[in-house]
Specification:
Layout: E1 2-4, E2 14-16, H1 19-29, E3 34-35, H2 40-46, E4 50-51, E5 66-70, E6 76-80, E7 85-89, E8 97-98, H3 99-112, E9 116-123, H4 128-131, E10 140-143, E11 148-153, E12 156-161, E13 166-170, H5 176-187, E14 191-194
Parallel strand pairs: 3-4, 3-5, 5-9
Antiparallel strand pairs: 1-2, 2-11, 6-7, 6-8, 9-13, 10-13, 10-14, 11-12
Length: 195
């Protein structure tokens, strides 16, 4: 869905998934019920039935449900022990955690507990392959071209080329074999599938 630079309250400098990738996510899940890292402008592209904006603090506070789409906001996080919450920071340090890693952890937990039915996780963070290797428990499409995303900024929404990107599919637990085959069929033209 979308990635927001300073996710807490800003929706400028936001990266938005392009129509091609959104259409594929709708296709594999028969619709996106919830985009957990979004905004009003981003959801006009993603067209999820519901979305969480930065002020909703979806990483820490909200209930996730249904068919979920996740394109994490860019940045780094630290664990605030006093508040018992993940907090975004502009700092750089080996002790900080990539936003893509932190958001995937929450997505995985919600899928594992069956609070969500299925999910598509889009990441333009190549290091995600080492941050949380549980992604290899699921089918992954390594996109063969760097996607052209949309950047929402004070100058409007404009195309923005990103880097090496992946799509990870967390299938429904009760129908995983067929849905994984559907994912392969739908995404194989977009890149290399690893299952």
């Amino acid at each position: 869905m979308s990635a927001v630079g300073s996710y807490k309250h800003k929706e400028d400098s936001e990266l938005i998934t392009n129509y091609d990738l959104v259409a594929a996510a709708h296709g594999i899940m028969s619709g996106i019920e919830l985009d957990v890292a979004s905004s009003k402008i981003a959801n006009s592209y993603v067209e999820a039935e519901a979305f969480y904006a930065p002020s909703d603090d979806a990483l820490n506070e909200t209930e996730w449900f249904g068919n979920v789409y996740l394109f994490p906001p860019a940045g780094t996080y630290y664990w605030n022990e006093r508040q018992e919450k993940w907090r975004m920071t502009r700092g750089t340090s080996p002790t900080l955690t990539s936003s893509h890693d932190v958001w995937f952890r929450r997505l995985y937990r919600e899928w594992y507990k069956q609070n969500i039915r299925q999910a598509v996780f889009f990441s333009n963070c190549p290091d995600m392959v080492r941050y949380d290797q549980r992604i290899f428990n699921f089918p992954i499409c390594f996109l063969k071209t760097a996607p052209i995303l949309m950047r929402n900024s004070s100058n409007g929404v404009k195309p923005h080329k990103t880097c090496t990107s992946i799509v990870v599919y967390l299938p429904p637990i009760d129908n995983s074999t067929q849905k994984i085959q559907d994912f392969i069929h739908l995404y194989e033209e977009k890149g290399r599938i690893v299952c």
